[in-house]
Amino acid sequence: MELLVASDIHCNKRHCESLVTQSKEVDVVIIAGDLASVRRGLLKTVEWLKPITKRVVLVPGNNETLEELQTACKDWGNVIVLHGNGTKINDQQFFGIGGGIPVTPFGDWSYDFTEYEAQQLLKDCPEHAILISHSPAKGILDVSSSGNSLGSIAVKQAIVEKKPKLVICGHIHESGGKKENFGSSLIINAGPAGMRVTI
Fold this sequence. Notes:
- This protein has 199 residues and is an alpha/beta fold.
- The chain has a single domain (2-198), classed as Metallo-dependent phosphatases (Purple Acid Phosphatase, chain A, domain 2), CATH 3.60.21.
- 22% of the residues lie in helices and 25% in strands.
- It has five helices and eleven strands, in the order E-H-E-H-E-H-E-E-E-H-E-H-E-E-E-E.
- A six-stranded mixed sheet has the order 5-6-7-8-10-9, with helices on one face. A five-stranded mixed sheet has the order 4-3-2-1-11, with helices on one face.
- Helix 4 runs parallel beside helix 5.
- It is globular and about 35 Å long.
- The termini are close together.
């Protein structure tokens, strides 16, 4: 299965148009959250992405809520929005969790979850799935420009326990476009430009 993975588009039309073009050569498109920017611009970003005709799997970032993303995508028939649940495409399990984990310092507008809430949302993740998490795991592709490790302990725990074959994340822009192996899992902090991966 050929995947195109991305995250943190933040209302950038050029990135959307590039993803539409790149999507023609893959089977599934995965976007790990933050289509909007500070809860604005989600509808126009989705409109720019709608020409993608392949299956698209999304999770909300911390810049849009689950409900906002579901509403924005309701007329986009080939989209699956995940958050604390999963889906199967061509016999491959996908599981998703959105939002900022742990709670960000950005304030009330940010769609965030505590580590405990994230543990509950991740408990049904099947083994060896493709895990899509807006937030990276603690200590893996999660270092900010200030040098701080900002990832999620709960996401790290899920990777250790469930051994997903692939983890797609975003959130920490400084790590965008980078890959790292952790145990048997390939971790990708996707970034907005799009990355191809074969599973």
